[in-house]
């Protein structure tokens, strides 16, 4: 039997036979899970700079590629705000196709860009797939039809979709049909409704929901499209940045109607950048850094050292303003740079040399100067127009 990687097995929770449950998943879903969960590859371990230099050209290049890939994929840090979202999603009634009349409460993970919404949403999609596979195996055992009886090559319980443009209802359902691999025809909404029944779709997760234009008739129709998904007995989970703020900016009667519909149907779950003022906030920030520094594979950072969460923790916050995507980008470049130095150590000089996105790069030099002079205001507002 296929031996699951422990990192994937964890998503099956208390499943007593995760390897068997895994076999019920479509190969495309298995591949997608592996892409999300195993993105960093296998742990490359730590190699000194001297040992690295002593490798032959090909082996040295292989080693650098493995460590670079490892440092591009940071582990999930389950801080309090992440746990809050996870707890809410875990309490939702599970979809039961052909049984539920309607699934209420559409969760919407929102917040400013760079707070980790997409990463969290993908992990929830993996959880939903593993839970569905576990249920599928139990159903097969309860019906005593053997493990092969319910292995359906067309079974696709979970769909993850990321919007990349302002869709119409037709293009929205066409994209969903494409993800399942079914023809959309002239009526994609009807085609997807049939796909839900045929392919056992239970959950649809939609990322980058802010791409939808909430004004005008198109916005109203798209809100109705999300409601239509619910009426298909599908659990819908949304994620998008600043959606609440977009809905507040009402300019037309149509947008007023849209806003009323949305607030009545959606449960907003906010992710925020990590502040750095109170003792509790600083403790949470250090927790993030401790989790990340355990992932570093540089000779200058022994596994039990606490450089990021002690010596560099204020420095890292001043540069990133507490945004997770900025922190991940900063540490990725810092690790790749440090790997090619003699000491393999992340230093203040390396951190200051890295250029990040404009939101945190703007005024960075001024913030660092103020911090080093002991004049930094920890209540610095990383406003949404950065």
Number of continuous helical runs: 19
Quote the distance from N terminus to C terminus. 52 Å
Low-confidence stretches: 382-386
* CA-based shape: globular
Q: H/E element string?
A: HHHHHHEHEHHEHEHHEHHHHHHH
The Cα radius of gyration reads: 23 Å
Helix share bin: 40-55%
Largest sheet: 5 strands, parallel
Explain what the structure shows.
The protein has 386 residues and is α/β, with parallel strands linked by helices. The termini are far apart. Helix 10 links the parallel strand 3 and strand 4. The longest helix has 26 residues, at 117-142. A 5-stranded parallel sheet has the order 2-3-4-1-5, sandwiched between helices. Helix 5 packs antiparallel against helix 16 and helix 15 packs across helix 16. It contains 19 helices and 5 strands.
Overview features:
about 375 residues; alpha/beta; five-stranded parallel β-sheet; globular; disordered C terminus
Question: How would you concisely characterize the structure shown here?
Answer:
With about 375 residues, the chain is of the alpha/beta class.
């Amino acid at each position: 039997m296929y031996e699951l990687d422990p990192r994937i097995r964890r998503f099956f929770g208390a499943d007593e036979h995760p390897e068997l449950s895994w076999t019920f998943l479509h190969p495309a879903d298995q591949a997608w899970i592996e892409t999300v969960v195993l993105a960093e590859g296998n742990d490359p371990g730590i190699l000194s700079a001297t040992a690295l230099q002593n490798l032959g050209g090909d082996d040295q290049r292989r080693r650098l590629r493995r460590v670079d890939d490892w440092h591009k994929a940071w582990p999930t840090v389950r801080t309090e705000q992440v746990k809050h979202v996870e707890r809410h999603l875990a309490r939702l009634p599970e979809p039961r196709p052909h049984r539920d009349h309607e699934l209420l409460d559409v969760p919407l993970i929102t917040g400013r860009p760079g707070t980790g919404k997409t990463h969290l949403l993908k992990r929830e999609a993996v959880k939903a797939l593993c839970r569905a596979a576990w249920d599928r195996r139990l159903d097969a055992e309860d019906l005593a039809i053997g493990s092969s009886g319910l292995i359906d090559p067309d079974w696709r319980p979970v769909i993850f979709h990321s919007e990349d443009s302002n869709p119409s209802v037709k293009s929205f359902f066409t994209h969903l049909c494409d993800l399942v691999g079914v023809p959309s025809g002239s009526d994609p909404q009807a085609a997807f409704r049939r796909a839900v029944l045929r392919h056992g779709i239970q959950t649809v997760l939609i990322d980058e929901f802010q791409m939808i234009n909430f004004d005008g008739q198109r916005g109203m129709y798209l809100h109705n499209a999300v409601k239509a998904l619910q009426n298909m007995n599908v659990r819908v989970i949304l994620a998008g940045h600043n959606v609440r703020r977009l809905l507040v900016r009402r300019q037309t009667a149509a947008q007023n109607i849209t806003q009323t519909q949305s607030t009545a149907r959606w449960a907003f779950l906010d992710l925020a950048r990590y502040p750095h003022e109170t003792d509790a906030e600083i403790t949470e920030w250090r927790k993030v850094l401790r989790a990340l520094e355990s992932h570093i594979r540089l000779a200058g950072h022994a596994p039990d050292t606490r450089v990021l969460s002690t010596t560099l923790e204020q420095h890292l916050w001043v540069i990133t303003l507490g945004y997770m995507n900025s922190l991940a980008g900063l540490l990725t470049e810092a690790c790749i740079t440090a790997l090619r130095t003699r000491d393999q150590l992340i230093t203040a000089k390396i951190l200051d040399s890295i250029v990040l996105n404009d939101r945190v790069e703007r005024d960075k030099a001024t913030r660092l100067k103020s911090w080093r002079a002991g004049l930094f205001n920890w209540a610095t507002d990383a406003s949404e127009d950065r």
